[in-house]
Specification:
The chain has ten helices and seven strands. It has helices at 8-18, 33-36, 44-61, 88-91, 119-123, 126-134, 142-145, 164-174, 183-188, 191-194; strands spanning 22-24, 64-66, 94-95, 100-102, 112-113, 210-211, 216-217. The protein is mostly helical and 222 residues long. It has a three-stranded antiparallel beta sheet with strand order 3-4-5, with no helix packed on it. It has a two-stranded parallel ribbon with strand order 1-2. A two-stranded antiparallel ribbon has the order 6-7. The protein starts with 7 loop residues before the first helix and ends in a 5-residue tail after the last strand. It is globular and about 45 Å long. Bound molecules: iron/sulfur cluster (SF4). The site of iron/sulfur cluster has 14 residues, from helix 4 and helix 7.
Length: 222
């Protein structure tokens, strides 16, 4: 997300210090307008640059940094048939600190809490069984439709933000993304309404390599 993308290269260094072997980076799933303002969709160049820096830093310090597809490799308007499917609800379990049990690291909500139910109860509960039935169909829930992990065209930018057309229009009006067909949309739902902001350009001092915007120092410990 916009608030912390600058920290990714330094996180890689921290991971090396802690003996972590690999980091997997995913885009934040924006489920509402507030979160959408934090979407890297509106900071595409900066996002790509920091992810590339993190990968390079990882190679330097011995941490494998797995990043999602970069914006520059995606298409603004790609639509069409699903290019992948999601198997998360059938083979993944994530347990959070409070016992909430999740079936993916995408946008699906917890489907139970392992402090209050057995694993068997969780894994076979009705909501989860229903999700498995519709996950890769047009009836998939909205959080899956807005998820770039599965379901639809992974190459489409903005996959992980809600009301994508609205945000694309707003982004185009801000000049942070390419033109969109829905020009009427751009007028009706412009940046003034959504109060979107451009990303501040990356500011660095030539000698120190210090990022002044976030007080982040890019250096290795070795
Ligand atoms: S499509 Fe995304 S949100 Fe839906 S279950 Fe799969 S990973 Fe989770």
């Amino acid at each position: 997300m916009k608030a912390n993308i600058k920290e990714l290269p330094a996180l890689t260094v921290m991971a090396a210090d802690l003996g972590v072997q690999a980091i997997r980076v995913i885009y934040m799933m924006a489920h509402n307008e507030e979160l959408a303002k934090q979407s890297l969709y509106f900071c595409q160049e900066q996002s790509d640059a920091y992810m590339a820096k993190a990968v390079a830093m990882g190679e330097k310090v011995g941490v494998e940094v797995k990043v999602p597809g970069l914006f520059r490799d995606t298409d603004e308007t790609a639509q069409g048939e699903p290019q992948s499917s999601c198997a998360g609800p059938g083979h993944f379990l994530g347990v959070e600190h409070n016992g909430d049990a999740k079936i993916c690291c995408g946008g699906a909500p917890p489907f139970g809490n392992l402090n209050t139910m057995s694993f068997r109860e969780f894994w076979s509960n009705k909501k989860l069984r229903n999700l498995r039935r519709v996950i890769n169909t047009p009836d998939q829930p909205t959080y899956c439709k807005n998820c770039y992990h599965g379901g639809h065209n992974l190459k489409r930018r903005g996959k992980h933000i809600p009301r994508e057309a609205d945000y694309r229009a707003a982004a185009a009006a801000l000049g942070v993304a390419g033109p969109v067909e829905e020009s009427a949309h751009a007028t009706a739902i412009g940046p003034k309404v959504l109060r979107l902001e451009r990303c501040a350009p990356e500011r660095r001092t030539a000698k120190s390599g210090k990022d002044q915007g976030s007080n982040l120092t890019l250096s290795t410990s070795s």
